[in-house]
Sequence to fold (370 residues):
Amino acid sequence: MTDREPKFDREPKIDQGRDSALVSANGRNGRNREETLMTDSTRRTILAGTLAASTLAGTRAGAEAGAAPDATRTPAQAPGYYRYRVGEARVTAVTDGANTFPLPERFVLNADRAAVSAALVADFRDGASLTVPFTPLVIETGGRRIVIDTGNGEAAFQASQRAVGQFHANLRMAGFDRAAIDTVVISHFHGDHVNGLLTADGQPAFPNAEILVPEPEWAYWMDDGAMSRAPAGRLQDGFRNARRVFDALARKVTPYAWDREILPGLTALGAPGHTPGHTAFLLASGSESLFVQSDVTNVPVLFARNPGWHVMYDQDPAMAEATRRRIYDRIATERTLLQGFHYPFPAVGHLEKTAQGYREVLVPWNPVLR
Ligand SMILES: [Zn+2]
Fold:
């Protein structure tokens, strides 16, 4: 243990002190860090539920005019992180937030919007919109602090009205100094996984970390020929964004190969289709293991339950489906613990085979860390 090791046993006391200091400071100074973790829609819900109509009208008018909200009436969501152990390794799921948007006409390439909407309604969701969460991980093992994927980035925090880009704030609240992260492992180069490599002003967010990237992913997105052949729109934008991020890091990355242990206990597994170099991971420690699926599926309510459905983000949908079926079949059969980047927070659970596909069974919240 080094002096950089976070002192988790002291953390609740520290956080409590911070929170009450922020709440009292907010009365005088307006917005605070705690408040910034709450989305506007959450705030509206809380306001609507707790304030008298006359006060509500006044507060809404004030908020629209840019006035500071009253923190005593707008409690923030708690910082989003959740710890558990896998053998000797400690895993912390850290939320980057969630994006809610109107359900697109073709969110699922090979199913009608009505069928997708019905699947959401059957799960007690609003059938007209979709919420996609983002959950990067921290793994502490063998004296190292490893981050897997980085969320939408701090620049997205304000742009999304605080809905996403929360990872770095929650990482800090979980007791981690990002300057003390040793390694960042990237699963693939979509913006919701790599944009958090940079700070809001485009500087390296993990100044002392080695950045590990999948070799086939690096080869594809850095290939000028592939970029020139990419159609305008999402794919062309993907090339631009990947280069924006990695150019800001002076392309200082370490490519890794599949089917190898890339860090002690962490094996990279090829899961292509979503992108050409899309990678999942198996963390093994002692007799326990954790499968980190990255984007083998998007939200499980749609794509675990209907593994034949093709999300609009899959670059090679048929290959992505083959990958999904192969991996999910194995996870369900072997009862492996699963961490899913787009699963509901804290995004850890198991898969059960059903007649049509799989059903996700999330782990019960555990109040103690053994
Ligand atoms: Zn993703």
Q: What stands out?
A: The first strand starts at residue 81 and ends at 86. Residues 190, 192-193, 295, 341-342 surround zinc ion (CB under 6 Å). Residues 11-64 form one domain.
